[in-house]
Structures are given as C-alpha cells and as structure tokens.
Design a protein that fits this description.
alpha+beta, 3 domains, 4-stranded antiparallel sheet, 8 helices, 19 strands
Length: about 325
C-alpha cells in the first residue's frame, strides 16, 4: 500500500521519479491558481512548499510563506507579500536541496540581495541549488492550514501559533519559552484557574495553551500536578505561568528537598550518609549556580539571596538553612 502524500507535497525517488500529492485536480482550479511553488525537503522525505505565488483574481500575484510542522506532518501557510515571483538563493548548490514548480510562461527573478534583480533560467536556478520540476498544477493549500508558526528551541521545530498564546516568559526566570508537549505550568491562583490547589502542573494534552487554565474545560485530562509551587515564581497578574526547560527541571528536582531537609532537621547524625550527601549536594549545586558569576562576593551572594529564597524551597526556617549551608561548606 502506497503511503498517503498530502495534496501540497510530492515524493521524489532516488531515480528522480516524482509521485505527486493525492489531490492533484485537472480542469478549472478552485483555489487561487499557483504560478510558482518553491519546495524544500522535510525530514520525512516529502517535498513540501516553502513559498507559493498565486494569482489573486485581480491580475496580481500574492506570495504565501509556508512552514512544515514535522511533529504533526502538517503544512501552515500565510500571505506575506506579492509581486513578481523570486527566489533568494538560500539553498547550497552542491546539495541541490531546492525544488521549484513554475507555470509555463511565468517569469522568476533573483531577489536582488547580492546584486540587481534578473530573470532566471533553469540553468540559473540549478546554479542556486534549485531544480525545476514539472507536473500538473500544484495544490499548495489543499490539506494545509492557514496560520503562523513559532520556532521552539526546546522542540527544535515549528510549533503552530494557533491562538498567539503558546509563547510567554518563564515564571521563574527571564527566558522566553514556547509551550509544548511535556511543558510545565505554575498555578498560583487555584480559585481563578478552577483547580483544587496551587502547584506545578504537567500538560498532558498538546497543543496546550496556558490560558486554558481560565476556562475550566480541560483540567481533568489536560494537566496533572507534579510539584509544589516554587517560592520564587513570578505570577504577575495571571493565575498561571509557564516554566522553561531548565526551571521545570529544577522544580521537579526540588520535590524531594523538603523531605530530606526535614530528616536532616530532626537529626543530621542519624540521617543515612547517602541521603545526607544528596541533600548537601543539592545545597552546593544551588549555591554554585547562584554565585558562579560573582566569585569575589561569594559570601554576600549566599547571604543576600540564597538563604531567604532557598529556605522556603527546602522547607526550613532561616537559621536552620544557614546551618545547612555551613555544613555544605559555605560560611554565611
């Protein structure tokens, strides 16, 4: 059974044979008629549109940028300009990574970034690393979705920006973070969010937009509580904030700290060596992270920031946190 190829894509075999998408249509074209479609190859092997120029019905030409979402095997597109179709020479000629379909009689130009615009022949395109392919009129928007995407440095791929809500700053630092599968959200106002208690929650449904915490529709099967609320999370005016990858990892690692600290508080001497050392290592890693950029002012940094904030994270009163730091090797 041949794999399904979306209407907007095609597959090129090693011998150069091209199998066009499953919805090529002869006769009058129902959608905006393409005049140029530039393709790039996805990880899956399909050739998917990168840009498409189409007639606008008024004698002009509109350009659409296209973005491939690998995790969904889905194409997104949005109108981004118009005019004479052009290519910008992004491919590397030695790899021939580009493909382009051009309607008969259509002029394609260079972009003019490295010199004046000029009309490109098939040989000129090859010199830019783009091979012209021939076939029936493409359907670049069939099976595709209109909308923008965001690049996620965590997922290393495009993420659909369906509602403009899946990007925000981390609630524990200043890092900009794209929400994605497995992301964590810190919920401080349980009444407004409509959940049982504040804390850190893991998203179990993707795509997940943290503003959904306000509508009460997805709580039961979209999030699960995984940790207590960090003492230093910045909620601002919101009931919930997303956490970046590093802060989320720290929060999950902190789950055992109050238990270890309580055991230490009851009697350090009676505490098993491996558990006491795990607690002391947690102290050292957090102190070292904080003072790394200020070695000349180490004691002040520990005293002014680490003790007040970390005491709550370890579940200890301030004087015991100071004693724990001293046992870990930091005089404060």
């Amino acid at each position: 059974m041949k794999p399904h190829i979306p209407a907007f894509a095609f597959h090129e075999a090693d011998d150069g044979t091209i199998t066009w998408g499953s919805a090529w249509k002869p006769g009058p074209y129902a959608d905006p008629e393409p005049v140029v479609v530039e393709y790039e190859q996805a990880t899956s092997g399909l050739w998917v549109p990168r840009q498409a120029w189409v007639r606008d019905g008024k004698g002009g030409i509109d350009m659409h940028d296209c973005d491939w979402v690998e995790s969904r095997q889905e194409l997104r597109h949005h109108e981004s300009g118009g005019g004479t179709p052009y290519v910008n020479g992004w491919p590397k000629p030695e790899r021939l990574p580009g493909r382009i379909w051009i309607a008969d009689g259509t002029v394609v130009t260079s972009d003019g970034w490295e010199g004046p615009k000029r009309v490109l022949s098939d040989d000129d395109l090859l010199a830019l690393g783009i091979r012209r392919v021939h076939g029936p009129t493409p359907a670049p928007f069939d099976d595709a979705h209109e909308g923008d995407v965001l690049w996620c440095d965590v997922c290393k791929e495009n993420i659909p920006d369906e509602h403009g809500e899946n990007i925000s700053f981390c609630g524990c630092c200043d890092e900009k973070h794209h929400m994605h599968e497995g992301g964590l959200v810190a919920v401080g106002d349980e009444e407004e969010a409509g959940i049982a208690e504040p804390g850190v929650y893991r998203t179990t449904r993707w795509p997940f937009y943290w503003s959904n915490l306000f509508n009460g529709a997805l709580y039961a099967d979209a999030i699960e509580r995984v940790a207590d609320l960090p003492s230093d999370v910045r909620m601002g005016d919101y009931a919930a904030e997303s956490l970046c990858r590093d802060c989320a990892a720290r929060v999950l690692a902190d789950r055992s700290l109050p238990l270890l600290a309580s055991e230490w508080s009851e009697g350090p001497e009676a505490m098993p060596d491996d558990r006491r050392e795990a607690l002391l290592d947690s102290v050292r890693s957090r102190v070292d992270d904080w003072v790394a950029g200020y070695p000349e002012n180490r004691a002040a940094r520990v005293h002014e920031w680490f003790l007040p904030k970390m005491a709550a994270r370890f579940g200890l009163p301030l004087h015991e946190m100071r004693m724990l730091c001293e046992e870990a090797g930091y005089a404060v």
